[in-house]
Amino acid sequence: MKFLIVLFALFASAFATTVQDCQGGQTPIGRLIRVDIEGCQTPPCILPQGSIVNFEIEFETGEAGEDLEPEIVAILAGIEIPYDGVPKEACEDLIQGDCPYAKNEVLIYSQEFEILPIFPPVEVTVRWALKDEMNRWHMCFEVDIEVTLP
After folding, report:
1. 84 pLDDT higher than 90
2. Beta-carbon contacts of residue 10 (< 8 Å; ≥ 6 apart)
3. Residue 13, SS3?
4. Which one, of 150, 116, 136, 131, lies nearest residue 72 by Cα?
5. How high is the pLDDT of residue 3?
6. Computed over its alpha carbons, how large is the radius of gyration of the chain?
7. What are the residue ranges spanned by the domains of the chain?
8. Strand order of the sheet with strand 106-114?
9. 3-state secondary structure (DSSP) of residue 100
10. Which stretch is the leader sequence (predicted)?
11. How far apart are CA 42 and CA 53, in angstroms?
């Protein structure tokens, strides 16, 4: 049984995307385990305008809570630009676990992210956090992306 768990962990990490800890905002109370951005293992992630990218984020909660909401910011030349293009109710997009959740519970959040045709071709850093009803970040990561023409 231990062999299967180790094998699964190695398989999952082989397809994980390399991300950085958040440099701005608050310190997360939970722990990021894994981020998988479809088609991207090593940033900058190349994302063509008009595409839809699947994200899968595995994390451990830092405290018990009732709700989760994404907070996404694009950072361009040091300027933070909020992005509200994903559903606010992250609990509906959990593929492992549910809300309410317990302290130290491992959850997996899955989301599609649309690269709108109006996004300019540019390299930016994206900060993605999941916060609870008390505005505490349970996880946060930053990843460099490059929006390209289709």
Report:
1. no
2. none
3. helix
4. 131
5. 36
6. 15
7. 2-148
8. 31-37, 52-60, 106-114, 94-96
9. coil
10. 1-16
11. 15
What mean pLDDT is predicted for residues 47-54? 96
Distance, CA of 39 to CA of 120 (rounded, Å): 20
DSSP code for 40: B
Q: Does domain 2-148 have CATH number 3.40.50.10190?
A: no
Tell me the pLDDT band of 13, cut-offs 50, 70 and 90. Answer: very low
What is the predicted pLDDT for the residue at 128? 96
Q: How far apart are CA 34 and CA 128, in angstroms?
A: 13
Lowest mean pLDDT among 6-15, 78-87, 90-99: 6-15
Count H helices and E strands in the chain, helices first.
1, 9
- Residue showing tokens 């305008």: 49
Q: Prior bond to 100 cis, omega within 30?
A: yes
**Sheet harboring 69-76: ordered strands across?**
45-48, 137-148, 123-131, 69-76, 79-83
